[in-house]
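Protocol step 4 of 5: obtain the predicted structure for the target chain.
Materials: sequence only (see below). No template structures provided, no constraints applied. The aim of this step is simply to have a reference model before the mutagenesis design in step 5. Sequence pasted as it appears in the construct record:
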Amino acid sequence: MKHFFLLSFTVMVLFGCNEKHNQTETITPKDGVQSTNFQMYEMSEMASLMEQMYAYNTQLKERILTGAPLGEYPQAFDKLHIAVLTDASDRDAFFNDQAFKFIEAQKAVYNQTENAKENFNKMVNQCLECHAKKCGGPVPRIKKLLIPEL
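Step 4 output (structure tokens):
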């Protein structure tokens, strides 16, 4: 099962970064009357990494809830310090500090498995702390990762 997740994660990263989608395309309706130009959105390296982290942590949450083995810390998360941001000016001292805290919190989930649930929620709260000040859009989605107290 561990190998399946690692393989899936690797395939997602490799194929997700292969194509460039930032091209202008022309759409012509069948009647040929009108054309619309649009530019496909291309995620920054950071946005793509955060999407992967969200997907991975969704699976990790499920493993914690079911008592399944957690596997190993995904080394790809370490790219948080170097991934290209949508807006380069967002990489400031606050961001760098929060990135360090997030990685430490994520690693704690794997290093202290007896407290996986609590450490997982601490990691999610670390995401929320940063996103509350930087990019608030994903906050409602991130909150869904929290494991409720029973």
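Step 4 remarks: The chain has a mean pLDDT of 83. The helical segments are 2-16, 45-66, 93-111, 116-133, 139-143.
Proceed to step 5.
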